[in-house]
Design goal:
The structure is a homotetramer. Chain A has helices at about 10-20, 35-45, 55-60, 75-85, 100-110, 125-135, 160-175, 285-300, 305-325, and strands spanning about 1-5, 25-30, 50, 65-70, 90, 115-120, 145-155, 185-190, 200-205, 210-220, 220-230, 235-240, 250, 255-260, 265-270, 275, 330. Chain A is α/β, with parallel strands linked by helices. In chain A, helix 2 (about 35-45) links the parallel strand 2 (about 25-30) and strand 3 (about 50). In chain A, helix 1 (about 10-20) packs across helix 8 (about 285-300), helix 4 (about 75-85) runs parallel beside helix 5 (about 100-110) and helix 7 packs across helix 9. The interface of A and C includes residues 246, 252, 272 and 274 of A. Strand 16 of chain A pairs antiparallel with strand 16 (about 275) of chain C.
Chain lengths: ~325, ~325, ~325, ~325
């Protein structure tokens, strides 16, 4: 399988390195507009051709797949021709800059029968894979809430806000675990530096039932926190990505609700129990992801993070962005 | 100074014990409707008279002050006669069940020239006192945000929701540190157990400038978190109340904003530096608070947590409750 | 059951309070040489008689038991007459200042058929009780080692060194868990302040098999650490007493040894697995201990921390002290 | 500057990669006895020649320096001919398998006027560099003790014990910070798996004054701990290498000793104060180290981890090994 990568900046080199180490894959093209990035790619991967012109990849009939690792504003204009030229595509998160763009790419991929996968890397970590397994096995019972805090002192992006930068991670994990379709999104935030882009935001996603999701993304935190709490009526879970090894802890704790005659009607009590930290697989997530992409292309399987999943993340982002502009108004998804 | 305490349930015993150990104070009355609470009070404090009738305290002309440690629904009907009988009052948080009640009590205390203090205990901790000192000294610069997470697996209250139970702590700390008057409040939450009371809530307080405050209160968390992040343009601060000793950490970190000619207009960069955890005073907060109440009565000083401060917390709670009922609508304070 | 307490200084008040709250127990005497301690005891416990003369307790024929909470140097001279007068005794740790004293007290108690129990409080914590249960159930397999770190910035004792102050805790936990009799002790330490008493010490206890125990006690540590590692060939355990709730964690980790033909002879590999933090009982240890003492007296049962257990701790302390003086020489126990 | 590397197994690839990225350095040789390691080296670094014969490097007159990254047993037989052929040498830790070997290599390097540097990587970390700076500035005052815990569940080495595997790190850090020459070493440990090699050890290093150093190395710990405590009479320091960012914390805490008339003679009291976590440089230690080696060769400077430093570590290891065999006997250094 012959792969070409567009964008050799921050994340592209990781993709090239991982694809280069994936069995049966040759990275044959590296495209980047910047000469210094091209020469770095050439030095590290002499077997690949470099180019400033992405259409060299589209026009290479021997190329099977294109990996797009460029800023989100350019995704649509690079993924579309790739699909039109019959290439399978792995695209950086978020999939597109708008729902409209995302829908068009999804349609095109389906029409062409091509794999269009989105690089939501967290889905391929040992931690999220274990959480998925726990949730699907019903260990947590009915889910009460999903609460994610993703804050640190961030390198400011000059072309995007904290919402589009960080929230794709949380939204992709949330929608990977939850089957219900979200109803609406509210977002509050602030731009403290006058850059024109929000540097912190609080996002609430409502669902048809009582399940509620909340995400705090922040580029202005002195400490790095990557913590997700998931509450269920049977058990509860903490996913702390800053823990070196015990990232996932399952608490045999919860509340017991019993109906009771009398003035209160409902009696709520809490219970505590053992905690368990399951062993996690330690393979690099991106390595798992690259192998998964290759397998999906070969065996015509649906990726875990397919275009539908990627589009759902864009729907949530777009709704959140509109809510942020409207000071927290509830925007339907 | 002769003090009487109404309510000898969960918190009352701590107040009695601390006042009994305060120099120059005699606890002469303990009132409680429950016989078993009265007999426990009598056993522990044989020098105090016990009664089921709070008016025994109001009618005791030798009594200087009344401490009210009963459920919030009863505050108004106990504080009002206490003030009318000329007693200084220390009342449990929150001060009252509504802004209307709170305003009336404030007016009455002012008219009578009596001390009406609210038991916002956190204000008297070594940690919050140090944070106040740091903020007032301008160490953090202009404040960007206040973010508080106060979650644990809670003993459910049967007569209140998580908002009225936990958020008074965060609102009192917030308003102790910030001089600006809040503009409006939004609240989202959920009642997962069908008890009729929200068990988790996300509260956003907006201010006239870009400063933003957010509070997450939750009775359904498997882990106990008591963490406040305060961001400023010079430094940032973390207050982790679960830390045994280094509860307050000040980070010499932040962002630098510079105006620049060119396409972006504003250039934002981040900087990191040393962290410092100042030594905190370790005295029990309630002991400091009781001594402060006595001093304010004697020297006619204004308490740190006076009726104005207590009323502001009730204003925020009432606005948050209305927003919660209206699914996050922005409610002016 | 009528109890008298000798020593109302640092720890005595906790013992009096807990016995006073134990069903069926009356604390009828408090003895202390210091007038201010006697008057504090009288104020808090008006039903008890106070005295400066411990023989008032020995001579009170209605008294069932004596609790000795005085400095270790006085234990022998107080416990001995108490036993001679037919009183059951609970004595502060360590039981005695020397093995010779301890042996004599043990003999006397046995001869008189009286309960002589040592206040090794940690044995009665939910954490150590759970660890005992885990070890006895064979969950850890054969034990490899016991490693304890008990360090903090200590209030210096003026009449003892760090060894006699802190190591009784570790030695009592160690010998509560391990059935084998220790062979010898080595100790290295230092007196940095010229006080004549070691302020830090490293203690190694050797056993007939390959099991090894090590204890680090230190009054000069900037941070408080209370951590025990216990390694076994099936599982391993960490007991971190500074953790607010998950004090005990059991790791399904270890090493696998297999014999193999070839140059190395023995092949050692490691395996990792889940971690589990069992729920612990949260009752105050001293309350459990006081109830246990009463039960042992009434039902003529052997206490968990009986005189034999207490004497073994003194044997280890005495050997360690001799090794410390001899710069780490191995001293048989 | 032309460099050749011998040994392309576990650590060698990191050295090759870092030297390849160092300005003005060409890695021209990779030697390894294993064909698969040579082919991996060739694939990753096509510009370098590979060989199974180390003497190809010695005989290459254009080669300036040799890097030895092979098991310790082979160091002497590789470093010696490299020096004899006039090559500067960077050798893996520990420098040699015995003091005798180490002394011979040191002499040879001095005679030839060549740089012989030992790869004690920790010395080049931002954390240890900052600690060195703090100690040298006298911030801690006179040093009381150095206590290091370096434990984890280790991949067992088949040709060495835990002492020779892990303790070089602690001994190199210790001797980098302390000017005094150690007096003697005691070591206790155990071999639980019957492999013939100790899997855990407790090492005590005594100095002429009251300063004492202790190291706990362990391959059988369920948790990974990398913590050093350094006590001084002015301040104390904790270096926790598992912390993601605040690895070094300085406590303005300690003890105050005052001489006093009366029964105790010496009065010791403790004091607590602020804690400070200085900002650390985040550059990869090995990159700093490679640049330092190049600089020392070019400018004829003495490396921080020169042959004397490396030999001192071997002296401590050899003494510790003898003490371990003699069950803790004190062995002079």
């Amino acid at each position: 399988m012959r792969v070409g990568v567009i964008g050799y900046g921050y994340w592209g080199p990781n993709l090239v390195r991982n694809f280069a180490q994936t069995d049966g894959v040759d990275v044959v093209w590296c495209a980047d507009l910047r000469a210094e990035c091209r020469s770095l790619a050439k030095k590290r991967h002499p077997q690949a051709s470099v180019t400033a012109d992405a259409s060299d990849l589209f026009n290479d009939e021997t190329l099977d797949a294109v990996v797009v690792a460029t800023p989100v504003a350019t995704h649509y204009s690079l993924v579309k021709p790739a699909l039109e030229h019959g290439k399978h595509v792995l695209v950086e998160k978020p999939m597109a800059a708008s729902v409209r763009e995302g829908e068009e790419l999804l349609d095109l991929a389906q029409k062409k029968g091509l794999v269009l996968m989105v690089d939501h890397t967290f889905i391929y970590t040992g931690a999220v894979r274990k959480i998925k397994e726990i949730v699907e096995a019903g260990e947590l019972g009915n889910l009460y809430y999903f609460d994610s805090v993703r804050v640190n002192l961030g390198l400011f992006q000059h072309d995007t806000d904290v919402l589009w930068d960080l929230a794709p991670h949380d939204f992709s994990i949330l929608m990977h675990l939850v089957k219900e379709r979200p109803k609406c999104v509210s977002a509050m935030g602030s731009d403290h530096t006058g850059s024109g882009f929000a540097d912190m935001a609080y996002l609430t996603v409502q669902f048809p039932n009582h399940f509620i999701a909340h995400v705090h993304v922040n580029w202005l935190s002195p400490v790095k926190i990557r913590q997700v709490l998931i509450g269920g009526d049977r058990r509860m879970l903490v996913y702390d990505d800053m823990e070196p090894s015990e990232k996932v802890r399952v608490y045999d704790s919860g509340v017991t609700v019993s109906t009771r005659e009398g003035i209160y009607g409902v009696l709520v009590d809490y219970r505590t129990g053992d905690m368990r930290a399951p062993k996690l697989e330690f393979r690099e997530a991106l390595s798992t992801e690259c192998a998964h992409f290759v397998e999906c292309v070969r065996l015509k399987k649906t990726p875990w993070t397919n275009a539908e999943a990627g589009l759902m993340v864009v729907r949530l982002l777009e709704a959140a962005a509109r809510s942020l502009a409207a000071q927290g108004a509830r925007i339907p998804v």
